[in-house]
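Quick one before lunch.
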Amino acid sequence: MIKPVRLQKFLAQSGVCSRRKAEEHIKAGRVAVDGQKVQEMGVTILPGQNRVTFDNKPVTLEEKLVYYMLNKPGGYVTTLSDPQGRPIVTSLLKGVNSRLFPVGRLDLDTEGALILTNDGNLAQRIQHPSYATNKSYEALVKGIPSKSKIDQLETGIMLEGKKTSPARVKILSEKGRNCLMKITIHEGRKRQVKKMFSQMGHHVLHLKRTAYGKLTLGSLTTGSYRLLKPVDLKKIFL
Ligand code: URA
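Model of the uracil complex:
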């Protein structure tokens, strides 16, 4: 017997997008079941029996799930299209024809680790606050943060009316009047690392994400990417 599955879960399993994005696409009227536009949540479908379309294109479960780690260069956007015509990260994955989307965003000028996948469920898991996936960054900041400021960043500071969750922060090296810091956070608020340091009076001059959990960039050079294996994926949640 075919089990009914929620429409947003089906879209995520088919690699169209993450579950959270699926809800937005449904609300926006881009999804139809058996030719009828569906805009409310909670609708279930029978995979293989109901015909689901996204932007009028059929959605099926057959696509193989793939995972890549890209070392994102500065100057690339992590959205799938850009009204301003700036280069998009997926254009760096040559000859990869799955419909990939980035897991989480990096600012235009931020470099480093970016997972791209067609697995909406994994994307959801990495980004969902209940999993508290660690993300580590190297930030070149202006000045040398004091021990007290580092302690405050670690404990949590008020940022836009909400306290940040505990973080791990340490100095990696001093670079003249500036300082290379390592920071590990598990929230994903917009421009969070830059805002946290700025609030402490230390403007971020350069930012690079180095890891998701214990999955590091490794020897990937800027602009290059590698296919991730199941053993790599496990490290994300360590
Ligand atoms: N925090 C930031 O401020 N920018 C990023 O790109 C990622 C995390």
